[in-house]
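job 3f2a | input accepted
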Amino acid sequence: MDDPRVTLAEIRNTALSVDEVLQAVQDPVAGGIGLFVGVVRDHDQNKGVTGLDYSAHPSAADELRKVAGEVLSDEIAKVAAVHRVGPLQVGDLAVVVAVSAPHRAAALDVCHTLIDRLKQTAPIWKHQSFTDGSDEWVGL
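job 3f2a | predicted structure (140 res):
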């Protein structure tokens, strides 16, 4: 059964909103919110990046929800995670995760754990295009 404290776990092909994810983890018991925003940067591996294209397996949203549920503990009020797919440009938001808790330490620790686990397990693949004309797939 899904835990109602996982308030948002989606894959989207539209622009992400930090405000939406923050709102999803608001809770009267929460005194702290840990937030991670992944942004497309202009370089990787000493090469200039022109853009990315994210692809996801149809099960990716289920995996986001599963991982979000796995990081929950009695110390956590709510968690939320949204990942973008499709073409992205430098500066676009690729992923936003947030965790709320009564105290900041738990919120920050679990936020860190959540993004790391999502990057390791979610079936989401990144195709990077570089300024030198080369490209690469990440996460295959």
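job 3f2a | The chain has three helices and nine strands.
job 3f2a | closed
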